[in-house]
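Quick one: structure tokens for this chain, please?
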Amino acid sequence: MKKLFGLAAAAGLGAAAMGALALHSYLDVMYKETIPKGPMKRMQDLMDNGDMIPLGNMCEESMKWVDEQPIEHIDLLNDRDQILKGYLLHAEEESKVFAVFSHGYRGSWRGDSANFYKYYHDKGYNFLSTDHTSAGDSGGDWVGFDYYESQDMLKWLDYLIERFGDDIKIILHGVSMGAATVCQMADKIPPQVKLIVADCPFTSAKDEFISVANGVGIKKTAPYIYKGMNEINKRLAGYDLGDTDVRESVKNARAPMLFIHGGSDDFVPTRMGQELYEICTAEKDQFIVPEAKHADSIVYDTEGYYAKLDEFIGKYLK
């Protein structure tokens, strides 16, 4: 009997420990505020190993140009009564083309979007970047991993169409979680969206969480940690992480899609972008930079990246 009691107590403690790990991991990943660095952030650090420094340096340099431009700051109320922040750079001459950018996880408009303001401005287009929910200066407490972000981005498209007219043409461009966001939007977009650029998208939050855990040696317990995090997420953030899967949206995409990925990306594995490219039934193209890791294809092959954008835009922006 004592042995059975001891086993039951150990099992209870094990379950409690697993629950505590799931809760801290959840808050670490999903909540907007900074908490002491938890297991998920430590796993991200292990996966990163300094790989993001070149991209960060490029963004910082690009932002110097952006800061000299007359950026219009826009507030938008989403369907959850949160204030979202948008940052619009108008073309020098009136243009009906709007590039709309979706940033990555824990980013903001001052992050990876910085590398595209000047590119699209030089093409004579308007450029809008936003702070996603719980990011930058936007409201909200919980990261949506494309679930909430895609809904909010559709609101931004409605805003542009209402303000600038039904005859505008829109380019969607996203990186990392922002790429998953534009993928999630692919079967819901209005006809004004003429093409979509998805740079290193994940297939789902579940796939991404488990991939990161596996990458640092956590394999057997990763699915259980994810399951615990998802149960917490349903109660606190109000959505199921299962609804972040973008496969069906990509299968039914309403606009041509360009998939970009680093061939050495081990954070959002290249295979995820490859799978999405293969299942996309719309007109599509692909650009793989073999030596690039996560989100830094533009760093390793800047000229090739912009040239591929030029080619894709020239083909489908009609």
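The longest helix spans residues 2-30.
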